[in-house]
Amino acid sequence: MKLLPVGRVIVIGSVNADRILRCPVLPAPGETVLTTAATQGFGGKGANQAVAAARMGAAVHLVAKVGRDADGEAALTDLRGAEVETGSVLTHPDAPTGQAIVMVDPAGENSIVVVPGANAHLTAAEVTAALARLHLLPVDVLLTSGEVPEECIRATAAALPADGTHWVHNAAPAGSLPDTGPTGRRPLVVANAVEARQLTGAPTVEEAARALARRADGVVLTLGSEGALVATEGRSARLPAPAVQVVDTTGAGDVFCGALAAGLARGVSLPAAAATAVAAGAFAVTALGARGALPRPTDL
């Protein structure tokens, strides 16, 4: 049974079919490596985040686009089985469903190549229409990431009311921070240490957090086994991560974002939501695949 959240989590993001390759080592440039195992799964930052938020008890809607193919049909079936509302997931007549090739070494580190496919064809007009149909409430949480076209993120910013409705932006892949919309609203930015340095050029995560906080409505930097750093209103705090046996780090950041958004939708404070998200991210690395270990609140 779902928890009774204060608001909904509305994710504007990508949907992929994942091909997961277990490798003895991650290949270097020019190197050929034989896999030890190959499996298939479901991914895409948006879909992963949506499923993670739903598993944490949130009422979740996904705004996305898939291809008119077997991968798209399977992905939609999986999302519905995870209790994610897919009424705003559109189908492109020609482009294939997005794909990700995920290579994982024995230590759980990964290298990922993404073929955007239908994800790249989601438009600003479609995002605007979807958000209008959903009638944003002050208690809702909007979650975006860099795996959809920038125009879709701009449309999300434009749809925000003057106050209320949290906006969380996962700056992955790292590009540029979203522009503010007509109301001047800025997002809470979530990034890992590498992405934070790419966005700011700062040499340390603390300096990167301070630089990002000046351009956003708060910052959460994910630091892997070291937990997370939360920076807002001139203050920062480190949140430690529990020690776990790492199997695969793929999707851990997505699980973090989904759990964070679910917490904010329930009305808890940012530090409390981030602490739960750290635990959720740690849980996520204990199995293979982006959704191999999705925690429920009781697991944490």
Layout of strands and helices, then pairs:
Layout: E1 8-12, E2 16-22, E3 37-43, H1 45-55, E4 59-67, H2 70-81, E5 84-92, E6 98-104, E7 110-115, H3 124-134, E8 141-145, H4 150-159, E9 166-170, E10 188-192, H5 193-200, H6 205-213, E11 219-222, E12 228-232, E13 235-239, H7 252-265, H8 270-284
Parallel strand pairs: 1-4, 1-8, 2-6, 4-5, 8-9, 9-10, 10-11
Antiparallel strand pairs: 2-3, 6-7, 11-12, 12-13
The Cα radius of gyration reads 18 Å
Number of helices: 8
Provide the succession of SSEs.
Answer: EEEHEHEEEHEHEEHHEEEHH
CATH fold description: UDP-N-acetylmuramoyl-L-alanine:D-glutamate ligase
Strand proportion, as a percent range, falls in 25-35%
Low-confidence stretches: none
Distance between the termini: 17 Å
Under the CATH scheme, the architecture is 3-Layer(aba) Sandwich
User: What percent of the residues sit in helical stretches (DSSP H or I)?
Assistant: 25-40%
Average of pLDDT: 93
* Form type: globular
Q: Indicate the CATH class.
A: Alpha Beta
Q: Profile the largest sheet.
A: 9 strands, mixed
Provide an overview of this structure:
The protein is an alpha/beta fold. The protein has a single domain, classed as 3-Layer(aba) Sandwich (UDP-N-acetylmuramoyl-L-alanine:D-glutamate ligase). It is 30% helix and 26% strand. The strands form two sheets. It has a nine-stranded mixed beta sheet, with helices on both faces. A hairpin with a 2-residue loop joins strand 12 and strand 13. Helix 1 packs across helix 7, helix 3 runs parallel beside helix 4 and helix 7 packs antiparallel against helix 8. The protein starts with 7 loop residues before the first strand and ends in a 16-residue tail after the last helix. The mean pLDDT is 93.
